[in-house]
Design brief:
The complex is a heterodimer of chains A (109) and B (115). Chain A has 109 residues and is mostly beta strands. Chain A is built from no helices and nine strands. The termini of chain A are far apart. Chain B is built from no helices and 13 strands. The chains are: A mainly beta (109), B mainly beta (115).
């Protein structure tokens, strides 16, 4: 599975959009980009995934560049409850998730 | 019911004890997983069961013994653990689909302390 690079931490003001970047320059054609988050002392939670096209669901949007070497997770209106570690995972099979160190997002008032 | 439950929430055991962790889901998922998460580190995959058969073992020491008695239940039997095995143990489930698997649903974890 391709490796990913994420900034270790980010801050976001409540109510603003949080844009979390992820680099995956070695991604291959059949690998998906998955995003999970882990709120303190809880199990990880699935957010969204995509292959080539941009995706949106009730939680977030996923923007994947045309060359697929990077992506951005967008939380459109961040709240304090979105404070968590966000993991970007690239995998050819969602049965085997390899978590990197993730981005610690702190949402502040 | 979109929940994965894990019991117990906390467990303290000695190095000579035998204990078991339990995980349950009623979403009809046919893939179940065990992960280990040390403090301030990301989760690491230990085992994957697909249709009640062990499909992935990430070179986990034999003192950890998984068991999948039916499609809803997953156990992790622990024996002769070491203090460095203290961690949060997470269970997850997902539904296999053509060409892969759907997203994983995680339980809250069991926090294990080995004395």
């Amino acid at each position: 599975d391709a490796k990913t690079t994420q900034p270790p931490s980010m801050d976001c003001a409540e109510g603003r959009a949080a844009n979390l970047p992820c680099n995956h320059s070695t991604i291959s054609g059949n690998e998906y980009v998955y995003w999970y988050r882990q709120i303190h002392s809880q199990g990880p939670q699935y957010i969204i995934h995509g292959l080539k096209n941009n995706e949106t669901n009730e939680m977030a949007s996923l923007i994947i560049t045309e060359d697929r070497k990077s992506s951005t997770l967008i939380l459109p209106h961040a709240t304090l409850r979105d404070t968590a570690v966000y993991y970007c995972i690239v995998t050819g099979t969602a049965s085997k998730l390899t978590f990197g160190t993730g981005t610690r997002l702190q949402v502040t008032l | 019911d979109t929940e994965v439950t894990q019991t117990p929430k906390h467990l303290v055991m000695g190095m000579t004890n035998k204990k078991s962790l339990k995980c349950e889901q009623h979403m009809g998922h046919r893939a179940m997983y065990w992960y280990k998460q040390k403090a301030k580190k990301p989760p690491e995959l230990m085992f994957v069961y697909s249709y009640e058969k062990l499909s992935i073992n990430e070179s986990v020491p034999s003192r950890f013994s998984p068991e999948c008695p039916n499609s809803s239940l997953l156990n992790l039997h622990l024996h002769a653990l070491q203090p460095e095995d203290s961690a949060l143990y997470l269970c997850a489930s997902s539904q296999p689909k053509r060409g892969g698997y759907n997203e994983q649903f995680f339980g809250p974890g069991t926090r294990l302390t080995v004395l």
